[in-house]
Amino acid sequence: METRPMICSRCTASVACVWLVAALGAAFCEGIVAAEPPAAWPTVLMIDDFESGLDKWTNDDAGRLQLADGPEDAGKVLRWTAGDDGIGHIIFKHLDRATVDFSQYDLLRFRVKVSGKPLWNLDPKIQQRPHTYGYLAQYGSVDTLEGMDVWIDYVQDLRRWENAWPHTYDAEAQSFSFDVHQLAGAGHTVVELDDIQLVKNTLGVERSYRGVWSREADGAQVTRFAIDVTNRADQPQTVRCDVVARTLNQFTYAVSGQPLTLQPGEQGVLKVAVTCPAKVAASCPAFYGETPLLRIRVDETPGLALVAELPTGTKPRKLTHPVVLCTPQRQTQLRRQWHDPEQRKTMGRWFVSAVNGADTQLAYLPSYPPIGHAGIDQCPADDTKLVKIDVPNLPMNRYQCPKCGAAYSGLFFDAAFENWVGKHRANAEAIGSLGIAYGITGDRKYAEKAAAILRPYIEMYLTMSIAAPQAGSPVFSATSGSTRIHGSYMHERRWLSDLAVGLDFIREANVLSDDELTQLTEKVLAPSANNMMDHKVGVMNLQGMIASTSLYAGLAAEDPQLVARAMYDSHGILNLAHWGYLPDGNWWENPSYQNVSHGVMFPALTTALHAGIIQFDDRWNNVFKAAYRLYGPDGRSPTLGTGGPGNLGYSDNVIHSLAWMLDDPQLAWVAHHRKLWYPYDSGLWARFFDSEPKLAKEDARPIFTDQTLDFPHYGGIAMRADAGKMYCYLAYGRHLVHGHYNKLSINAYGKGGWFVRNVMGGYGDHFREFLEPTSGSSTIMVDGRSQDADTGELLFSKSTPLGELASAREIGAYKDLEHERTCVLLPDALVVIDRSVSDASHTCDWLHHTDKMTGLAFAAGPVDKREIESLGDTVCYPVFLPATELTLDGPTALVRYARANKSGAAVVFATLDEDAAQLIRARNGTTLIARKHGDTVRFACVMQPLAVDEKPTATIEPVALVDAKTGRAVGLDRAQAYRVSTPAGARLVMVNYTDQPVRSATASAVTATERVTLVETK
Ligand SMILES: [Zn+2]
After folding, report:
1. Is the distance from CB of 26 to CB of 92 less than 8 angstroms?
2. In terms of DSSP H, where are the helices of 135-247?
3. Which of 68, 333, 356, 830 is deepest in the core (most CB within 10 A)?
4. How much distance in Å is there from the Cα of 487 to the middle of ligand 1?
5. Radius of gyration from C-alpha coordinates of the chain
6. H or E stretch covering 532
7. Residues 912-941: pLDDT tens digits?
């Protein structure tokens, strides 16, 4: 075979890696003579400084482990170089609690340098009971946001893991490893590690501190920190601190009162002042800030270094509210419209109903339950829904399991049964909606009511427990997603945004005293935002949620530290945008998360631009246009991951929000021609920031394209035919951050509807398969397993008068097999030709899905009811089984799909007599599976979308090929060809896998030299 893949030899699915690492950890422990743990664990325990080689580490990956020279004075370091694009594993071999006991320590510290290709993150993973209560904990925390090609001293708080899956609990299992999640695409990531050590936090240093901001007489702005440290060790400690130089740019710092000598148990204060010099303050953008990293050392323990973030920012001389969701000018205009009966009629129904809604909130009675978590309503033993029981005179509620009889009491149960989280959400919604009504009307009754609901949080917010969701942490501990409201960042950010919007509007009503405003900042807004910002999840939609809400809270509170941290921190909005938007303008997560990200990032950008915090930058034009170039004719995205298809609403909304400043003719076209939508924050923001486009309608240029466009950085090609009315998105392999195993999958649209899509995020029962197996993709699944997290490449694409051509292959999706998919998009049909090549026999399942959005279901037809064999024993949605099998008979096999309106689609298979095939209609009523066994197999079909009452007419049949020079027959190792007939005409499609010309064995004079050839035929 000429096109042997770059074979990767890695575990078969990243889902399995969790188990593999755990199993290795356990296996290596056998045969090791147990040592006695030390009587006292040292403050700093060096796990490895690599001076004695790499013998403690292994690498079950195609990547390479090497001993390398570190920077000066560092000696040797571990260097891991990726062998391919997949997930790497750097595994500590003999984890033994007698020598390394994670539960004795607070921090994991190591020096790390990432070079070559960026990575999503580097995940330390640890399991060793009682550490993280015996669960396998993943710290998805080290990313490249702090820079590439530079040694970083990384300190991981061991209490803050990202995931500890409930089913990973094990009293015995022990493991320690680093997972390397590279970006897909060209290049190789190199990770270097050194001085991996465990550290006791002998001073009780926190992740970040809040300082006190002030403006000095000379115009400098200073943030003064008083950092409480307590000597938790049993000997005296002499404490010194300094700032990591690379974390300050234009600001300066000074430390006073050091060294600080503390006796055991003694408390002391480190004083640090960070200054924005007057000159910088005069010239920097509004609310500019820097977040120095403070490094704290102890003379008596040379290896000890504790770090803390000190977010600092500047504040403009004057800030006029509202600023979060509205400008003062717009507010004036709205009030004028509201108070003039004639203008009120034209101001937009939304604003009138917003005020009407707030009127009902005037009678709202808030309540403040002691915890804001969603609670537990199921029996912890058997997941049965609990029932409240009546016990006379018992001073607490009692809930019983109808299955096992066990009874429970407690706050978490009360929280669920009394919907406590709903009460806190309702409070926030009322504050937001009353604030908006005050903004529109200027009527103080709304501001007073909003303030009345807000006020009790000053005393009660910090009394609420910080709880994580059950899914992310089985023990409700202070880990990823741990918040006071609803147990996830996604929810607390919603709550905090509502508070910020409400507070921002009502500030000028003076219904809250200066002291109340200060206390709201210090006891509610700042702790909420900082708790979320203390957690770094990398360049993800979730980090955008955290940063955006923190920006709003900071502006509402006029707090320079919050605004600066939200904008300028390593994980702030500007750096997220810098890393997260690809050169082709798309957000580097899959389209579903692209939508979530746009939903929260675009409004934050809108606020920041209107507030003068940032200036518009031309690269945003590219970002705003990306979805219009990528999405289908109906404005919906292809499904390439969890969460379902989004739409262009997010992009439409931000363009409406910024129309007055946009110079781009295509963006102006959107502002003139597209309406507002209401997804996430973006619809609300667009209501308030909607503006007259800068360019007149006649200067605008349509944004929608009828062209086929490749997205090399996003890893897909959007093919368009019939003036853009026919569409096919071929995902050719880039795994994407937060992507899924859908290489060479297709999403296609024609005749006014989608006719093939990935199903991916099935949620419900399917949510168990959250890692989104290949079985949910319209591609080929091999041996019932998911594809590996590798990449792929577009081998060929061409636009011709007859149709659009593309051919792509995966790279390393399966270990010893190469799949190439060819798509030919005709004006009225899509031809899909697959070839899978291997030296060993496999079961190949060709999958075709139609999700809910297509509206398609199998049309009635002859059904041969037979039990079919298993689709493999892993990673397959159970709803596929059992199913019905269709008999392949005659030259083609036709499967008909119908919609309620009598439109539909047909999938017509070429029956290829050289190989036996099964055709299976899955029980879910939409999934079609064509199955073949063999080392080299092919599939070919034509998919014909059907208009209302249109009958399927497409046909497809194989065509024999010969070598163009010798005239000898050519096999599947070199080429394949089909005659396809649709209403548009008869066509010959030839796929040539080599550079040797082939031609049809019959009369045709057409020679195929290119990868894909499309010609008219008789
Ligand atoms: Zn029970």
Report:
1. no
2. none
3. 830
4. 24
5. 31
6. helix 526-533
7. 665 556 677 766 667 788 888 889 999 999
